[in-house]
Every structure is written in C-alpha cells, then in structure tokens.
Design goal:
The chain has helices at residues 3-14, 38-52, 58-63, 67-79. By secondary structure, it is an all-alpha fold. It has one domain: ACP-like (Non-ribosomal Peptide Synthetase Peptidyl Carrier Protein, Chain A, Orthogonal Bundle), CATH 1.10.1200. Helix 1 packs across helix 2 (38-52) and helix 1 (3-14) crosses helix 4 (67-79).
Length: 80
C-alpha cells in the first residue's frame, strides 16, 4: 500500500472528526489546527488502528503532531 492510498483512507476517517472543516495538509496539526482534545484523539487513533489493523503506541502518538507525521507513521507500520 503506497503513501497516497494511505493518505486517502486516513482522509476519509478524519472527516467526521474535522468539526471545523479545516483543509487537511501534511502540516496540519491535530492539537492546534484541528483542535482535537484527548478524547477525540483516542477515538481517532482507534479508528486508524481498526482501519489498518495496526497498534499505535503511546510513545508513537506523542511523536505524531501533524497529519503528515501520521500518514508516514502508518505507512511504516503497514509495510512492517
């Protein structure tokens, strides 16, 4: 699965969480731009994990600050 396909799938997952209708770019931040609170982050991460059949550890979550970071992290986990 290539990065573009992962990006497309994550965009469909993020849509219901994107309450403000923010344009999603690689530099979009979850805390600042999308204003995700901790509960939203947990629900969103669970949806990503279910979609790709992966586990995103708490350490990995702490390192993922932007949408681009998330796509890259998922791409690495899907390849492994």
């Amino acid at each position: 699965m290539d990065r573009a396909e992962i990006d497309t799938r994550i965009r469909s997952i993020i849509e219901p969480f994107n309450k403000k209708g923010v344009d999603i770019a690689d530099a979009t931040t979850f805390a600042g731009d999308l204003e995700f609170d901790s509960l939203t982050v947990m629900d969103f991460v669970a949806a990503i994990e279910d979609e790709f059949d992966i586990i995103i550890s708490m350490n990995q979550q702490a390192e993922i600050e932007t949408y681009g970071n998330l796509v890259d992290a998922v791409a690495k986990m899907v390849e492994a």
